[in-house]
């Protein structure tokens, strides 16, 4: 009986000694796998962030181009409005001058008819 207990103790101890590095190695492998997964996730997140940033940059550039185009159109419209206002003033002045000349001509005609 004593031999059985000693033999059983010896076998259990031997098993514990043999299995211990395997368990320790197993936990190290798990940690390495978790670390590798975490690294891969960080890498994928960085790639996704870069892609999102690139897309945001393209959208911002397109928005800037559109804003510049609208600003240019507004500038051209303002220039055209000024030009139209000058031409309208010129036309108004010409109309007033023509009316004055017509009155003078009417007076001259009236005077010549009276004489």
Give a brief outline of the structure.
Helix content is 98%, strand content 0%.
Please describe what this structure looks like.
- The chain is mainly α.
- The protein has one helix at 2-114.
- The longest helix has 113 residues, at 2-114.
- The mean pLDDT is 87.
Which key phrases capture this entry?
mainly alpha, 1 helix, rod-shaped
Largest sheet: none
- Structural class of the helix and strand makeup? mainly alpha
Helix content: over 70%
How many β-strand stretches?
Answer: 0
Question: Compute the gyration radius: what is it?
Answer: 49 Å
What proportion strand? Answer: under 5%
Secondary-structure blueprint:
Layout: H1 2-114
